[in-house]
Amino acid sequence: MTADTGAHPVRLETERLVLRIATAEDAPALVRYYSENRDFLAPWEPARAPEFYGAEFWREQAAIHHREFHGDRSLRLILLPRDSPREVIGSANFSQFVRGIFQACHLGYSLAERAEGQGLMREALGAAIPFVFGPLHMHRVMANHMPHNRRSGALLRALGFVVDGYARDYLRINGRWEDHVLTSLTNPDWKG
Ligand SMILES: CC(C)(COP(=O)(O)OP(=O)(O)OC[C@H]1O[C@@H](n2cnc3c(N)ncnc32)[C@H](O)[C@@H]1OP(=O)(O)O)[C@@H](O)C(=O)NCCC(=O)NCCS
Predict the structure, then answer these.
(1) Which atom of ligand 1 lies at the shortest distance from residue 124's CA?
(2) From atom 19 of ligand 1, which residue's Cα is the shortest distance away?
(3) Beta 10-13 vs 2-3: how paired, if at all?
(4) In a mutational test of the pocket of ligand 1, which residue from 15, 91, 93, 118 has the highest number of ligand atoms less than 8 Å from its CB?
(5) 100 C-alpha vs ligand 1 centroid, how far in Å?
(6) Quick count: other Cβ atoms within 10 Å of Cβ 50?
(7) Atom of ligand 1 nearest to the CA of 118
(8) How many helical (H) and strand (E) elements, i.e. helices and strands, does the chain have?
(9) Could you tell me the CA-to-CA distances from 70 to 107, 120, 165 in Å, in that order?
(10) Which residues pair with 14 in a beta bridge?
């Protein structure tokens, strides 16, 4: 794990993956990722505007993601295979940082269709969550999934997330308000 103030303020390595905040140079790979997986991701994500599939959008997002990280507002990571480091195969976004008496954030993630079923998100979050709990000093990570999203529910259970509740019409996914199971993971080693 490294953390510096250069182009890659965070860089986490696992057995098969590198995790870091996107830069403008990653824009074409992000366009490829979201375009190739458009139909696969559609049932689980917000409806996307046409710009979402263009490089300009992702160049702007990269700058925003760096600004947000340095402003203690989010940690938005892309997942790159160690043996193919210019290819984006997923994302793990810790967002909406709240400090004060909460010390909490939200987590959202996605993988490429062809990267599913290999334990890659578990591996990625197995490195990212300790970074969020350690250097980023969070006490709680919250992640929510639609009741029929079996893979997402299984992933969160495997990582130790516990169910906090059930929220009706919680998020607008693919153009519809969808119920969500609310889960969270707390940091037993948090020190004030
Ligand atoms: C949610 C999502 C990230 C889960 O991906 P995933 O690959 O199932 O997640 P994991 O990393 O936990 O991998 C577990 C799977 O890998 C398999 N696996 C293979 N090798 C493994 C290993 N070394 N370690 C752990 N699991 C392994 C497991 O058996 C399991 O597959 P199975 O359910 O078919 O048995 C993915 O389905 C996705 O991106 N979906 C679309 C977007 C989405 O739903 N986002 C979340 C919205 S809440």
Answers:
(1) 11
(2) 118
(3) antiparallel
(4) 118
(5) 33
(6) 7
(7) 19
(8) 5, 9
(9) 18, 27, 32
(10) none
The beta strands (E) that lie in the chain are given as 2-3, 10-13, 17-20, 75-81, 90-98, 104-111, 140-145, 162-173, 176-186
Could you tell me how many residues make up the chain? Answer: 192
176, two tokens: 């519809």
Residue 50 CA to residue 42 CA, distance in Å, equals 13
How many angstroms separate the CA atoms of 103 and 23, rounded?
27
Sequential pLDDT tens for the chain (192 residues)? 555 546 799 999 999 999 999 999 999 999 999 999 999 999 999 999 999 999 999 999 999 999 999 999 999 999 999 999 999 999 999 999 999 999 999 999 999 999 999 999 999 999 999 999 999 999 999 999 999 999 999 999 999 999 999 999 999 999 999 999 999 999 999 987
Q: Encode 137-172: b = buried (16+ Cβ within 10 Å), e = exposed.
A: ebbbbbbbbbeebeebbebbeebebeeeeeeeeebe
Q: For the whole model, what pTM was predicted?
A: 0.96
